[in-house]
């Protein structure tokens, strides 16, 4: 009987892991199923572009995996039973259950309100296609002179604020950040960022906490009101709560704690990649939630699974480190901040149009790696044992 591998989620990490597994293992020995709620792969790093009216190329998962042997199951995951190795799902036909021998958990994350009142009722976000399209519709109906407030000064907030300000110069755009604007960047990068904000007319509120969001703006921690017809919430992400409801060992963030092969420390038949996994990078620092982390995590998990199932004792290791942070500041500007392996800013950087082009190449490359799994290096190996023995060995 074939070894059943189930991949939950087809974002960057899940989609790449599934494609890599298909090119590492012989199709006669494994069944690989990707479970995803949406029919398309979503370029999450471009959701701020979608929100401002730009059209993105749609990539149907069934076409992505055509000819690979990977099966796509369009369904929403509702629960995971790690003791009985089953996944509960629902689709248009109703509730169902999928059994697995090896599980790759890649359900990712969504915008987190951190308990701030009013976020769910009044704020918009760009964490996925439905929410980005909702913001797109709202911005399209916002008249000239309208006010937009972006809450959060991380990468997502910077990209959203500058994209909106560039696409709609007739709007009054502001950004709120808890610390200084781009305070994790080096001095030259911070200066460039401030210059872009000034050029685009973005009002910056630094060292400001938001206590609650209202229909017509946000109230700060010191009681001030920042008026806004549209509030965009980009103040962090939270993982899907399903893992925390299982007996898997999870961190306080709800992420599955994994070893250096992305294998759960409590359940060896479960691997977690992307935002769903808590993995240590250089210096023992947890990898940040990002495509830059999710891709090498997916490589590592797929190669580790393939190695164990095919009886190899040496497991290849993917480079779990950082090289740069890519920030788009609209379509014609950006910052490429080169960083140390553990993600601290170096003096070197790129800015301006060259940085914008660099970021575009990175985004296209990430999407290409998902949509062309058939071009992964082919070293298909045979599973060395029966399914029952393989399950025992992987455990």
Provide a descriptive summary of the structure in words.
The protein is of the alpha/beta class and 395 residues long. The protein has 2 domains: 3-108 and 240-321 and 361-394, FAD/NAD(P)-binding domain, CATH 3.50.50.60; 113-233, FAD/NAD(P)-binding domain (3-Layer(bba) Sandwich), CATH 3.50.50. It has helices spanning 12-24, 47-51, 61-64, 119-122, 129-140, 155-167, 187-199, 291-309, 352-371, 387-394, and strands at 3-8, 30-36, 40-41, 59-60, 70-74, 76-81, 86-91, 94-99, 102-105, 109-111, 123-124, 147-151, 172-176, 203-205, 210-214, 217-220, 225-227, 230-233, 237-239, 256-257, 270-272, 277-278, 324-328, 334-339, 345-351. Strands 5-2-1-9-21 form a 5-stranded parallel sheet. Helix 6 (155-167) links the parallel strand 12 (147-151) and strand 13 (172-176). It is globular, with a radius of gyration of 22 Å. The two termini are 18 Å apart. The mean pLDDT is 94. InterPro entries: FAD/NAD-bd_sf, FAD/NAD-binding_dom, NADH-Q_oxidoreductase. One of its GO terms (molecular function) is NAD(P)H dehydrogenase (quinone) activity.
TL;DR?
The chain has helices at residues 12-24, 47-51, 61-64, 119-122, 129-140, 155-167, 187-199, 291-309, 352-371, 387-394; strands at 3-8, 30-36, 40-41, 59-60, 70-74, 76-81, 86-91, 94-99, 102-105, 109-111, 123-124, 147-151, 172-176, 203-205, 210-214, 217-220, 225-227, 230-233, 237-239, 256-257, 270-272, 277-278, 324-328, 334-339, 345-351. The protein is of the alpha/beta class and 395 residues long.
């Amino acid at each position: 009987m074939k070894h059943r591998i189930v991949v939950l989620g087809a974002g960057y990490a899940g989609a790449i892991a599934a494609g890599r597994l298909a090119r590492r293992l012989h199709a006669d020995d494994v069944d690989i199923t990707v479970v995803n709620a949406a029919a398309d792969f979503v370029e999450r790093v471009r959701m701020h572009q979608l929100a401002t009216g730009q059209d993105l190329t749609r990539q149907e998962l069934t076409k992505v995996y055509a000819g690979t042997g990977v099966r796509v199951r369009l369904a929403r995951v509702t629960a995971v039973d790690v003791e009985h190795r089953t996944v509960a799902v629902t689709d248009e036909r109703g509730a169902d259950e999928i059994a697995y021998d090896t599980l790759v958990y890649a359900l990712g994350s969504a915008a987190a309100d951190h308990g701030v009142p009013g976020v769910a009722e009044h704020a918009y976000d760009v964490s996925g296609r439905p929410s980005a399209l909702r913001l797109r519709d709202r911005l399209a109906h916002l008249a000239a002179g309208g006010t937009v407030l972006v809450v959060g000064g991380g990468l997502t907030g910077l990209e959203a604020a500058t994209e909106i300000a560039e696409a709609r110069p007739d709007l009054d755009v502001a950004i709120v950040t808890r610390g200084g604007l781009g305070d994790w960047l080096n001095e030259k990068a911070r200066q460039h960022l401030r210059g872009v904000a000034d050029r685009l007319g973005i009002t910056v509120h630094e060292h400001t906490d938001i206590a609650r969001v209202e229909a017509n703006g946000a109230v700060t921690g010191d009681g001030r009101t920042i008026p806004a017809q549209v509030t965009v919430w980009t103040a962090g992400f939270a993982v899907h709560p399903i893992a925390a409801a299982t007996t898997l060992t999870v961190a306080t963030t709800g992420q599955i704690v994994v070893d250096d092969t992305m294998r759960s420390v409590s359940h060896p038949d479960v691997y977690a990649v992307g935002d769903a996994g808590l993995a240590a990078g250089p210096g023992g620092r947890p990898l940040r939630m990002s495509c830059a982390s999710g891709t090498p995590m997916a490589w590592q998990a797929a190669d580790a699974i393939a190695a164990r199932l095919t009886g190899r004792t040496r497991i290849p290791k993917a480079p779990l480190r950082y090289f740069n942070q890519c920030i788009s500041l609209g379509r014609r500007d950006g910052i490429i901040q080169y960083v140390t392996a553990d993600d601290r800013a170096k003096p070197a950087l790129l800015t301006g149009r060259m940085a914008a082009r660099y970021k575009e190449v990175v985004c296209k490359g990430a999407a290409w790696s998902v949509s062309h799994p058939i071009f992964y290096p082919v070293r298909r190996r045979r599973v060395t044992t029966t399914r029952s023995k393989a399950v025992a060995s992987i455990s």
